[in-house]
Every structure is written in structure tokens, then in C-alpha cells.
């Protein structure tokens, strides 16, 4: 049995991670702002450069840092930049420093593929060795946090592992993926019939499994790992599969890619246009080679579980 601190345990990834850790009979300290999880010790706090972790880290073997500040509405770019730095950079480094002082050996930082950039060239997937190219304040804060943690780990001997996932989906997913399932379930015609660019996704249980491997594997420290389901898919095919699994017909209009991006940009949806229309592929071969790891679930299996959960929730 290991004693593990999971930050952000109230979030989508954090809840699934805590569940699996408890299944494996680990002692878990679940950190969140307010969520109470059963079967573990719950601690509540904000994350910043001033957070006091001294009463939490005693005898902890590993910290899995999932918590992060994500985009908030109604704030200026300057406000967002300052707050992203305070939580995602200064807050992460503060936690790592106190972890070392408490004798914690391993620190797993859940970063983002946004560190690499927003999209790839066709058939040129991102790798962990690529020059980082974050395009927004969130991606920049994750990169800055990585740099600060790497420098600190080199000085302190902390066993640092960094994981950069793409969009994570699974039962209980929120935000854009949930919106997509809702639209598909209503049978609304969508203008993505001509979008063939491939994108990488990761099923939440595949991500959790990799995190658990990184808690123990002797070759994990000092590495940056990319992760996906190892099966890329176009938004056109994704919508077709979601419709099929929902028992619905898909209505996809073949609007040319350049025209669709232009139209979405005109109405202030440039970022959404890039996410939906541009390729974003991850090469996870190095992750598989170093760790001897393979995704436990295929993309199709992950989508089936996600849609089944959504349909059951709608029914209830």
C-alpha cells in the first residue's frame, strides 16, 4: 500500500484516478476545493504560491498533481495570465518544494498537449522532444510550470514525471465533448462532412492507467510522456460513431474546410474552428517503449462506455 496525494480530485480525471487508487488498496489523500470523496482523507484548499501543505504531506509516497486553473469567463487577458501563473506555475512549484521537504519521492505533473501547440501538420504528430509552442495563456502556464518543476527536480532529486494528454473523454465528461454528444443525440445537421484531419484523444481510464504505471515504474522519472488512445480519428468520423452508438442518424454537411474555418472565425469562433478542423496528432511510441505500456481500451471501447453513460444519465 502506498500513500498518495491527488490534487484536483474533484475534477473529471481526479475522481477517476482516486477511484482506481482505492481499488488498488492505496491510502489516498484527496485534495479539492470542496468535493468530498468516500474511502479517503479529504482536504480542501485553493492552490497558490502561499498554500500550506505541511499537514497533508506526512508519509506521502507520491504526489499526483492534477489540479490546474482553466479558462474562466469575464476576465481580461492580463487577469487570466496573472492567475494562470499564480495557480499553475507558482502553486505547482510551491507544492513540489513542500513535498521534497516532507520526504516525498515522486511527483507526477499532469500537463497538457497545449504545451506543444494547438495543432500539427498533416501526418506530422507531436512528440515529447518537439520544441514547445504554446499558443494561449493556459498552455504557456503549463509550459512554465514544467520548466520550473524540471529545474527544481534537478536541484532537489525529486523524481518528476510529466504527462501531456490531449482532450480526455469518458463517462461523466463535461465541456466540449458533452456538448458534442448532446448535439448528435438531437440529430442536428452539422457542417463537418468534409473534415478529414485526424485528431488524438485519450479515454480517461487509459490516462489513469498510465498515471498509475508512472507512480511505480523505475524508468518514468525525468521523462515527459505523451498519451492518447493510439488511434486517431477525424471529427467527421467521430461524429458518425457517436451518432451510431446513440442510435441516431448522422447528418454531416460537406462544407469545405477553408470555408468552415473562415465562417467560424468571422463569428468569433476562431479557436473552436482550429479545434474542430485542424489536425492534432500525438506520437506515443516513446511512451510505449520506455514504460512497456499499451492503452487498455481502444477508442471504440472508450466511446461506447462514454455514450452508454450519457444515455443512461439522460434516461434518469
Describe the structure concisely for a colleague.
The chain is α/β, with parallel strands linked by helices and 316 residues long. The chain is built from ten helices and eleven strands.
Question: What is this structure's SSE topology?
Answer:
Layout: E1 3-7, H1 12-23, E2 27-32, E3 41-44, E4 62-65, H2 77-101, E5 106-110, H3 137-156, E6 159-164, E7 167-169, H4 175-185, E8 198-199, E9 201-203, H5 204-216, E10 223-226, E11 233-234, H6 235-245, H7 257-266, H8 270-277, H9 285-291, H10 299-315
Parallel strand pairs: 1-2, 1-4, 2-3, 4-5, 5-6, 6-10, 7-9
Antiparallel strand pairs: 8-11
Helix pairs in contact: 1-5, 2-3, 7-8
Task: Describe the structure using short key phrases.
7-stranded parallel β-sheet, globular, 14% strand, 11 strands, two-stranded parallel sheet, alpha/beta, 316 residues
- Give the integer mean of the pLDDT values: 94
- Low-pLDDT residue spans: none
Figure out the total of helices: 10
SSE series: EHEEEHEHEEHEEHEEHHHHH
Q: Overall 3D geometry? A: globular
Largest sheet: 7 strands, parallel
Strand count? 11
Radius of gyration: 20 Å
* Biggest sheet, spatial arrangement of strands: 3-2-1-4-5-6-10
The fraction of residues in strands falls at 5-15%
Structural class determined from secondary elements: alpha/beta
Amino acid at each position: 500500500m502506498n500513500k498518495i496525494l491527488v490534487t484536483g480530485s474533484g475534477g473529471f480525471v481526479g475522481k477517476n484516478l482516486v477511484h482506481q487508487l482505492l481499488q488498488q488498496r492505496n491510502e489516498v489523500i484527496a485534495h479539492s476545493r470542496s468535493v468530498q470523496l468516500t474511502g479517503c482523507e479529504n482536504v480542501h484548499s485553493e492552490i497558490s504560491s502561499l498554500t500550506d501543505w505541511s499537514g497533508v504531506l506526512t508519509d506521502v509516497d507520491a504526489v499526483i498533481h492534477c489540479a490546474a486553473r482553466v479558462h474562466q469567463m469575464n476576465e481580461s487577458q492580463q487577469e487570466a495570465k496573472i492567475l494562470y501563473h499564480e495557480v499553475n506555475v507558482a502553486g505547482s512549484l510551491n507544492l513540489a518544494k513542500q513535498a521534497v521537504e516532507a520526504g516525498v519521492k515522486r511527483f507526477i505533473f499532469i500537463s497538457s498537449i497545449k504545451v506543444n501547440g494547438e495543432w500539427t501538420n498533416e501526418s506530422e504528430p507531436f512528440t515529447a522532444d518537439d520544441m514547445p509552442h504554446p499558443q494561449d495563456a493556459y498552455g504557456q502556464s503549463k509550459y512554465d510550470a514544467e520548466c520550473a518543476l524540471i529545474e527544481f527536480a534537478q536541484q532537489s532529486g525529486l523524481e518528476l514525471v510529466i504527462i501531456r494528454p490531449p482532450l480526455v473523454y469518458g463517462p461523466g465528461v463535461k465541456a466540449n465533448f458533452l456538448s458534442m454528444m448532446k448535439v448528435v443525440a438531437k440529430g442536428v445537421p452539422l457542417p463537418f462532412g468534409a473534415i478529414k484531419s485526424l485528431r488524438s484523444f485519450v479515454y480517461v481510464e487509459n490516462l489513469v492507467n498510465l498515471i498509475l504505471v508512472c507512480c511505480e515504474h523505475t524508468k518514468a522519472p525525468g521523462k515527459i510522456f505523451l498519451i492518447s488512445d493510439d488511434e486517431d480519428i477525424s471529427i467527421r468520423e467521430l461524429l458518425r460513431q457517436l451518432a451510431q452508438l446513440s442510435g441516431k442518424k448522422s447528418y454531416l454537411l460537406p462544407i469545405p474546410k477553408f470555408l468552415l474555418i473562415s465562417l467560424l472565425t468571422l463569428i468569433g469562433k476562431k479557436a473552436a474552428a482550429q479545434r474542430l478542423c485542424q489536425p492534432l496528432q500525438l506520437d506515443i511510441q516513446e511512451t510505449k517503449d520506455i514504460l512497456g505500456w499499451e492503452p487498455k481500451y481502444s477508442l471504440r471501447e472508450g466511446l461506447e462506455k462514454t455514450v452508454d453513460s450519457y444515455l443512461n444519465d439522460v434516461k434518469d
